[in-house]
Design a protein that fits this description.
Shape: elongated
Largest sheet: 7 strands, mixed
CATH superfamily of the largest domain: CDP-alcohol phosphotransferase transmembrane (TM) domain
Distance between the termini: 29 Å
Helix content: 40-55%
CATH architecture of the largest domain: Up-down Bundle
Order of helices and strands: EEEHEHEEEHEEHHEEHHHHHHHHH
Structural class: alpha/beta
Strand content: 5-15%
CATH topology of the largest domain: Four Helix Bundle (Hemerythrin (Met), subunit A)
Strand order of the largest sheet: 5-4-1-6-9-8-10
Number of domains: 2
Number of strands: 11
Radius of gyration: 25 Å
Amino acid sequence: MPGAIDTAVVVCPRPELSEAAVLGIPVAGMPLLRRALLTAHQAGIEEFAIVAADSQQATLRAQLEGESRLRGRVRWCGPTEALSPQSNHTLVLSPSIVVDAGALRAWLSQVAEAGGVAAADGTGVGPLAVPSTLISPCIEAALRGHTGLQGFLEQLRRDHQLKRIPWEGKGHQFVRSVGEVPSVERAMLAALRSPEDGPIVDRYVNRVLSARLTRWLIASRVTPNQLTALSLVTGLGGAWLLGNEGVLSSLLGLGLFQFSVILDHVDGEVARLKFLTSRLGKWLDNISDHTVDLTVIAFLTRRVAGSSSSAHFFVLGLAAALGVTLAFWVVFRWSVSGQRLEVRTTTSARLWARALALLANRDGFCLPLWMTVLLGHPMWFLWALALGANAYWIAWLQIYGMPPRDRISTAPVQGGRS
């Protein structure tokens, strides 16, 4: 994009300030400085200058060791070293402020390459887009910490050199001490909740438990793909148990299946917090989910068929599997296309479109499964899928159609997991 900001200066407060002590604090398993750089890089920043006192640099450099995504992109500068930005505006960041990469990218796209300093509206001293003529006084102010930046912005406001650009999406989290880390992490996890989450099970069960597991796992070396594999194995075990008669087997099967869904959320949360989202991860995650769903259908079909030689049970199971597969495929195709959903029919279809959106989540599978199995009628679940899932994908195609094949996105997926 012409005129886009692709360089950033990250200013570390002077070591004698209390704000400097937080730079070594891990937040969601990652030091604040590394998190600030990776966030900006994911938002489109290619080159970084880190301004820090000589006494700070050895410790701060250690925080970036082994981070291949930043290799060759970082230049270290002393507080008195003059910077000569190549572009008209430079992004200035404070590492003690945690921001969302998607919101930062959207904000940067609104910053005009002219005029004074651009600041995020309503976010205090968050990211700044600073012209080259003001970069030196801005760095000097940032070296004095939060208070220095506030004074700098107030002076700019009085001089009519400050522009407020609306900040849309997830807000900032300012880390002032170790004691604030738990609340910051909870806010970060809450911000990861997807509008595609179900309104009942996802909201009140899956996300609540996944957030606790993610906070426990985020500092470990476990990878999102390992969590996806564990979710798959757990879900397959739950499906096998659901295929057996008996209350205990049913309860254990439901429990394992639900734990698989929770792990499915955990892998996405870990991927986003560690900046490990990818198109491959999105495919693995969704195919794993669908494999578990089909296996549940297969074992429940075997269970309801029992010793009967009647073929209609298998036809029912096949219809359920076909409906779930086609519903998965049309929704997933839109998901990876990067295109906005637009209702192609009359305005009367808006209610149907909202209903489809509400059902495009795991609640539509989990709730009927739990209800029918606990009531002892798993065949009702197969009927619900055979009728409901097939009606769903037909209604989806009627309202949205399929994304044009030549417009399927090949760009990296920012939110590549659920």
